[in-house]
Amino acid sequence: MLAAIKAPFIDWSELLPFTVLTVGGVVVLLTGLVGTQRFRRAAVPLLSLLTLAGAAVTLLGNWNKPAVIVSGALKIDDLTVGLGLICLVGAFFAVILALRVDNEEGLGRGEFHTLLIFSVMGMLVLIAANDLVTLFIGIELLSIPLYVLCAGEIRRGRSLESGLKYLILGSVGSATLLYGLALLYGATGATSLTKIGTVLTSSGAPLHDSLFVAGMALIIAGFAFKASAAPFHQWTPDVYEGAPASITTFMATATKAAALGVLLRVLAGPLLPAINDWGPIVATISVLSILVGNFGALGQDSLKRMLAWSSVAQVGYLLAAVVVADQLGIQALVFYLVVYTFMTLAAFAVVIDNSREWEEGERMSGISGLGRRRPWLAGAMTVSMVALAGLPPTDGFTGKLNIIAALVDGDWTWLGFVVVFGSLVSLAYYLRVVAAMWMKEPSADAPTTRSRTPEITAVALIAALLTLGLGFAPSWPLDKATEIGQKSVSSPR
Amino acid sequence: MELTLLLLIPVASAILGGLLGKNAVRSVAILGALGTLGLAIGIALNWDSSLGGSQFSIDNVWVSQLGIHWAFAVDGLNLALIVLTAFVYASVTVACALRDLESPRLFFFQLGLAASSVIGAFLAQDLILFVFFFDLMLVPFYFLVGQWGTGDRVAATTKMVIYTLAGSLLMLAAAVATGVMAASQHGRHIDFLISNLQHLPLSKGTQDWIFLCFAAAFLVKMPAVPFHGWLKDAYKAMPLPVLALFSGVLSKVAAYGFLKTALPLFPDAAANFQTLMLVLGVISILYGSALAFTTSDARLVVGYSSIAQLGFIVIGIFSLTADGAEGAILQMVNHGVVTVALVMVVGMLASRAKGSEDLGSMGGMAMGAPVLAVVFLIAAFANLAMPASANFVGEFLILKGVFSSTAAIAVIATIGVAMAAVYMLRAYIKAMHGPDANGVEQREISFREALPVIPAILVIIGLALYPQVVLKTTDGPAEAQIIPAATAAHIPVDATPAKMTKAGAK
């Protein structure tokens, strides 16, 4: 008697993106086991791209339809949609960048793509989390596939080292976070973020509880690990250098968006009443990241390491926007995450394309004279570097402008000057790349034939064009960012 | 519409030339530059001086969330400077097109981008837009020096960019702060239009640090002593025509920035720091002149002399008088034109002295090249502000303004006028007179060499005969820019003396 069974209500339409990712992930895994190698080579990436695109479309369907689903476990609002899309875009391009990687001895094609898809799903769960338990599930679902992906090139020592390092330090981060979540639960007696918010606003008592403050600090530290903010960044250069390049790209874009998104979700949401406690902590982490990241990047000879350090600094700028936590701050954060994704994507795509041509491609010396060998590729890299440094006419300028405006408006003007100082220091290493490409001769043993990877060149050019275009016409993403900011502030906590 | 075209033609023609191929790029670049110049002159002719105020205005919202406008206009303040920029750009493009260049397509793209961004900075009527173009100017010059320069070009260009961006980024933060704080202090919606911000003065304490950030950007860009550390290497490394554009117009954007943004927006701070700025100006005059007559490098004579000239412009602006400000704008135009002529002359001298730009390896060139000597002499006389030159009128107005506000500064600055005569004539005599140095060619100016320099000489002569062409546009607008600061500094503002001086100069 089927009619007699009373099933719990399931919000299928809101859950659709998660369903698409799950089903898609399983299908991709199974496809990786059947057919000839040629079939797999074509079908698996194609199915992965379709899955990611499907998730993006279904996620977009939830735009402007805020809902709390699965008995309060997940909160689908515009912030979820916006940041989720950034993660999906990061994954989408990572699949494209990995198209021609032949790694028969390591991860199979199916496994690689499935892990990537599940990691993205973890990000979506994380950003949407409205409950401490979902939040932890999200962060583990995000991390565990990444540990494997980092170590995916099993014959390469660096890759294994990268995976192991990320596993150990990432686990410490997760443990710290879990401990913090437990303390937060102890202080407020609730796991639902909505309820925690109500407890904190209705009675200020837990705010002065050392249990609460310690829990909050541990949570921030845990997320800072994931976002690779200083002083929790030590793993970043090694892992970024060792991991397969497409995975590094994925981590530099999507993981950052997810970690910062959830940090914002928690701090600017239920924990907003405690802003006087966490504001200075996050500001300190921001300053440290800006300083450590920028100075760390100065002497690097490996481009991937340089980009890793620079990403630490970029997280510092993003955290500065988190500190403000009002409408302008959220707007600045979301907008900067969008532009940061594309400029980072361009930079990594250039490095990958160049390193497909020769071994040296990942090094500073390997990029010498790129302007002569591959002018368009060098052009894309130049745009990316100029944008990362925050100079016009790119969207890096607009992004920094937003962050500084939010900081000044929120009475954090001094932090704005730290951002400016960081940009100045960063010029030294970004310009070094630009100078090497345009102002030096290619070394004698540079390849004369081009890599046959038009899709990677295309990714670099598209990302660079977007970076340039959004510099002149930032209105559309900025409008959406503003909308997200307004709704996140006015929505009930 | 006209202004959009003016802004786009340099960079668009460069891109078009690049697309048409290597052979077309030079002619298209020249056409674009001449078109820019023609358009600029057309705008100047159609500018109605009886109406005054902003004309040809464009105002579109660019970033609505932050109240940033894509706003351009021509007013009495920037009209002459825009024509100057178009003129210098045209001369430089012609000079470059006559040279052999590596990757000419990229070169003319960077040159066009540089011209467009300078024009944008002069036209911008929105504070953030101004900062946008002010920072953007640096990007093409980074490549122009680093890719086509000589000697230790990469180090020189990196040093230049980092030095100047240190100031510019401070200005960026300060500019954002200006808009945000003005909005919050007056309970208004955020907006960066300069004309709106002028009516929303910031509290005095805030003005001070914001003003200092702006001043840092402008003083480094000019450069003024002691912020000139980047100048020597960058000037030495720059290709000569690029140097003409750089020294001729970029430094003017900084001086113009004081008049356009810092004085009207932060009048109390400007009054507060008036003495500091005057002292920095005087130090620049004296130290720049001293450097100019101790160096034996012809190119650096021009470079250091521009430090001194910019020093005059600074004291003119910070005299906070109408005379001083008008003299400063006139002097910006004069110096821009004279610099083009002098830089081109340095190139000709070097090509006759086996490529060396050292004054010691030159000498006696006047005998075989009388026309070149005359060209050099006219430029040198103008630069040392010989009476009857437009530079004389400019410096006279500046000194008169400074005298009426801070007499002591004016007295010291007058020494600078005498020093200018010493270093310019020293350079002229060493290169053109005296015994032939070893291996110096006695070669008359050729047609190719004359093409970019003769127009500049003609303009120098024209300005000498009729400096009012600049002064009549700046009369009024310049004064309007300094009135708030002058009021704050309790300097009496009176419009009549400026007009009398101009009649006197006639």
What does this protein structure show overall?
The complex is a heterodimer of chains A (493) and B (506). Chain A has helices at 12-31, 37-60, 78-97, 109-128, 132-150, 157-188, 193-202, 210-227, 235-242, 245-267, 275-297, 303-324, 327-357, 370-373, 375-389, 395-409, 413-439, 454-472, 475-490; strands at 67-69, 74-76. Chain A has 493 residues and is mostly helical. Chain A has a domain at 274-493. A two-stranded antiparallel ribbon of chain A has the order 1-2. In chain A, helix 11 (275-297) runs parallel beside helix 17 and helix 13 (327-357) packs antiparallel against helix 18. The two termini of chain A are 42 Å apart. Chain B is mainly alpha-helical and 506 residues long. In chain B, strand 1 and strand 2 (68-74) form a beta hairpin. In chain B, helix 13 runs parallel beside helix 19 (407-432). The longest helix of chain B is centred in the middle third of the chain and has 34 residues, at 153-186. Residues 495-506 of chain B have low confidence and may be disordered. The A-B interface holds A 331, 386, 390-393, 397-398, 400-402, 404-405, 408-409, 413, 416-417, 419-421, 423-424, 427-428, 431-432, 434-435, 438-440, 474-475, 478-479, 482 and B 62-66, 128, 132-133, 135-136, 138-139, 142-143, 146-147, 153-154, 157-158, 161-162, 165-166, 169-170, 172-173, 176-177, 179-181, 184, 190.
Helix/strand order of chain A, N-terminal first:
HHEEHHHHHHHHHHHHHHHHH
Q: Give the end-to-end Cα distance of chain B, rounded to a whole number of Å.
A: 36 Å
The overall strand count of chain B is: 2
What strand line-up does the widest sheet of chain A have?
1-2
Structure summary:
The complex is a heterodimer of chains A (493) and B (506). Chain A has 493 residues and is mostly helical.
Q: How is this fold's topology laid out?
A:
The complex is a heterodimer of chains A (493) and B (506).
Chain A: H1 12-31, H2 37-60, E1 67-69, E2 74-76, H3 78-97, H4 109-128, H5 132-150, H6 157-188, H7 193-202, H8 210-227, H9 235-242, H10 245-267, H11 275-297, H12 303-324, H13 327-357, H14 370-373, H15 375-389, H16 395-409, H17 413-439, H18 454-472, H19 475-490
Helix pairs in contact in A: 1-2, 1-4, 2-3, 2-4, 3-4, 3-10, 3-13, 4-5, 4-10, 5-6, 5-10, 6-8, 6-9, 8-10, 8-11, 9-10, 9-12, 10-12, 10-13, 11-12, 11-17, 12-13, 12-16, 12-17, 13-15, 13-16, 13-18, 13-19, 15-17, 15-18, 16-17, 16-18
Chain B: H1 2-20, H2 24-46, E1 55-63, E2 68-74, H3 79-97, H4 104-123, H5 127-136, H6 138-148, H7 153-186, H8 194-197, H9 204-221, H10 231-237, H11 240-265, H12 267-272, H13 274-294, H14 298-318, H15 322-352, H16 365-368, H17 370-383, H18 390-405, H19 407-432, H20 447-465, H21 468-474, H22 477-488, H23 496-505
Antiparallel strand pairs in B: 1-2
Helix pairs in contact in B: 1-2, 1-4, 2-3, 2-4, 3-4, 3-11, 3-15, 3-20, 4-5, 4-6, 4-11, 5-7, 6-7, 7-9, 7-10, 9-11, 10-14, 11-14, 11-15, 11-22, 13-14, 13-19, 14-15, 14-18, 14-19, 15-17, 15-18, 15-20, 15-22, 17-19, 17-20, 18-19
